[in-house]
Amino acid sequence: MKKDIVSVLDLTKEEFSEVLSLAADLKRKRKEGILMDILPKKVLGMIFEKASTRTRISFEVGMFELGGHAIFLNPNDMQLGRGEEIKDTARVLSNYISAIMIRSFKHSTVEEIARHATIPVINGLSDLEHPCQILADVLTIQEKFGDDLKGLKVAWIGDGNNVCNSLILSSVYTGFEVRISTPKGYEPDMDIMKTAENYGAVIKVFEKPEEAVKDSDVVYTDTWISMGSEDEKEMRVKVFSAYSVNEELMKKASENAIVMHCLPAHRGEEITDGVMESEQSVVWRQAENRLHAQKALLVKLLTQ
């Protein structure tokens, strides 16, 4: 039976742990020069409505290293870009390839592809969630603090966007406490927060960034201007000016705190250059772990 990863919670708690454990193992093997053809002749079709650096490259390299192949699909080069129904595209692709990864403006598009495809569908980013990013992030946090993350304090500063939503949902499985500070009107999705809390997750909202960061073990931020909101840049820079992760803010975090950013970063806005380049920063490890987490996810979906 095919499985889709449209949301973090499409994985069970056991599957979530299995993917992270496999990702860590694949990472170790890669560093030892061991690459295994686990997915020979498998083909991943990658639909990109949005530009991409890390998502595209990590999935392409990941499929290659697993012995498979990845195809870049630009909607403007497909009949999808000329008005073909999403469900028709999903059905056709299901006859040609092994899995679909889609990076879309609308979460509903990912859901519709998954609903009509007979092969696994992976959400490579939508306006609501970014589950692939969060798998890499949790792997990164585990590398610093160990596999048991229960009670760890993770502060999210800035825009309550898709990554923030997936971080909140991941706390259902990790047990860490999510501490959120965003400007009014830029909070994470309320339904997602309620879902996480119904599972027993601890989600706290603070008015001031300093309150959220105080004694936190992880400080996470993201760009203030996501793709699709470029026309709001001037306004957003003003609204978010008090939510920059800078050296002064980091002094309030725990002594061994790490700083995370899923990239691309606008240095001098949501994060300072000094914090980005500090010893506390694990930004580059996060980016690297996209490769390992996604390889593990592909193995999980295509070998069951």
SSE inventory with pairings:
Layout: H1 13-31, E1 43-48, H2 54-65, E2 69-73, H3 86-94, E3 99-103, H4 107-116, E4 121-125, H5 131-145, E5 153-157, H6 162-174, E6 177-181, H7 190-198, E7 203-205, H8 209-213, E8 218-221, H9 233-239, H10 247-250, E9 258-261, H11 273-276, H12 283-302
Parallel strand pairs: 1-2, 1-3, 3-4, 5-6, 5-8, 6-7, 8-9
Helix pairs in contact: 1-5, 1-12, 2-12, 3-4, 5-6, 5-12, 6-7
Question: How would you portray this structure in words?
Answer:
The protein is of the alpha/beta class and 304 residues long. It has two domains: 138 residues, Aspartate/ornithine carbamoyltransferase (Rossmann fold), CATH 3.40.50.1370; 155 residues, Rossmann fold (3-Layer(aba) Sandwich). Helices cover 42% and strands 14% of the residues. The protein has twelve helices and nine strands. It has a five-stranded parallel sheet with strand order 7-6-5-8-9. A four-stranded parallel sheet has the order 2-1-3-4, sandwiched between helices. Helix 1 crosses helix 12, helix 5 crosses helix 6 and helix 6 packs parallel to helix 7. The longest helix has 20 residues. The radius of gyration is 19 Å and the shape is globular. The mean pLDDT is 96.
